[in-house]
């Protein structure tokens, strides 16, 4: 499917075409670099037409996160085959089998 372009309000300048931040003296603005002062940002996207297949993957696991601070890569032990994922399944973490009850000293 072909990409679609729409005109959106520039989010860098809130559609004003001007930017005024800490580097600009009071009452002075500069022309917005993102939209060249038009206030309009072209947004191009490809409409979703269903999940595509991916080659070279055998196993699907859950992600730890998206930043190095929180951690990246697979997490937990849940994993499914790519064939299961392609059929609509998702890896599921099982709830902890052992629930440790607090032991109180009763004397
Ligand atoms: Zn702008």
What does this structure look like?
Mean pLDDT is 86; it is low at 97-107. By secondary structure, this protein is mainly beta. The protein has one helix and six strands. 4% of the residues are buried. Zinc ion binds next to loops.
Features:
elongated, disordered C terminus, 1 helix, single chain, binds zinc ion, 6 strands
Element layout with pairings:
Elements: E1 4-9, E2 18-19, E3 30-31, E4 40-45, E5 59-63, E6 74-81, H1 82-86
Antiparallel strand pairs: 1-4, 2-3, 5-6
The site of zinc ion has 8 residues, from loops.
Short description:
With 107 residues, this protein is mainly beta.
Largest sheet: 2 strands, antiparallel
Percent of residues in helices:
under 10%
Bound molecules: zinc ion
Tally the beta strands.
Answer: 6
Helix and strand content put the structural class at mainly beta
